[in-house]
Protein 1
Amino acid sequence: DSGVTQTPKHLITATGQRVTLRCSPRSGDLSVYWYQQSLDQGLQFLIQYYNGEERAKGNILERFSAQQFPDLHSELNLSSLELGDSALYFCASSVGPGLAGEETQYFGPGTRLLVL
Amino acid sequence: AQKVTQAQTEISVVEKEDVTLDCVYETRDTTYYLFWYKQPPSGELVFLIRRNSFDEQNEISGRYSWNFQKSTSSFNFTITASQVVDSAVYFCALSEARTGYSSASKIIFGSGTRLSIRP
């Protein structure tokens, strides 16, 4: 158990809908990262927040957004969902800003999203 | 540009055999970090090791060992005396040590190697 929690574990929705995925980092960790794992794209980094501020951005679509709240939990919002958004979404956390891979990222169990 | 190649899509061995998972990377930076992660059938990602580009010493942790060779841009992972519980998808990953906002903390993953250990 990494100490990172994600809810829900599974989510089934329809195209065009909007969903929110939630992540709670390990106690004491200030950074939260979001990743998408799909069959065709593999594992991709989406976005990172550090202490409430956006820190780095990867291959995140404009239909997707995220935020980190004062209690350090984070939410990933996915809107106008398409079939291709079906994937496993991971959250990870680390102690600091995670500059340059200097810190280990600990992953949550993931949220499996199925868009029908 | 960064790239991580795991040419072995699937490997199947009998329990107690040794197995090596290959990882070849591409980067223009002189400072970077390499990682291995394990994803068991349950789906979670488990961190195994992080190595920076200035430390070419091989590392051993129990039955696991890693061979980092900058000359061939490889970071291979060997499991000695494999066990059924080692069955998982293993990902190699690369993070470049760039300054500035947009590149901080990005990790590029390889496509993974599915390892099956048969009893």
Protein 2
Amino acid sequence: NAGVTQTPKFRVLKTGQSMTLLCAQDMNHEYMYWYRQDPGMGLRLIHYSVGEGTTAKGEVPDGYNVSRLKKQNFLLGLESAAPSQTSVYFCASRRTGGGNTGELFFGEGSRLTVL
Amino acid sequence: GQSLEQPSEVTAVEGAIVQINCTYQTSGFYGLSWYQQHDGGAPTFLSYNALDGLEETGRFSSFLSRSDSYGYLLLQELQMKDSASYFCAVRRNTDKLIFGTGTRLQVFP
């Protein structure tokens, strides 16, 4: 009964390093999202996916790339990390279909610090 | 563009009722959701309104007026555990879910 799992939960990077955050969901959800959360800024949408093999830009996509090669996984990549990308990253998923509320199921978050 | 506005902070005492307002400006509006987030935790879903009116779920109710681009979350019989941040979020027809900046609720004994 895992739901949405994010790895790693904590990471410290140096400026210019690259890394990938992994999000995995076991609920067979079609849609998956990556958000970042900064103090006083709420949750801002980075990228999202409406199904395997698809990705789309959100509100703040610059500096990030994503891939959805398998339905259950959504990867967020930082090619060259910058201090401005220090944040808490949340992955979320939701099902599709009639009558659904659009409820997002969130992972526990990944805290990234870029020095 | 799109924007959501909600108060940054609200305080109340245990047992009281509090209302958190949310006004939005967006195209392709589908519905308004509310999420709760405790410090250090992940957001969790509270309610969703697609049509005008009031939705009630236990101590929490949510209201939407599409013509006014306005909604609110009503919390009754406040408990200490309700101290958290509350986010309204607009669901758009592009499948995006855009969040407001959040309202921090502090409940005092």
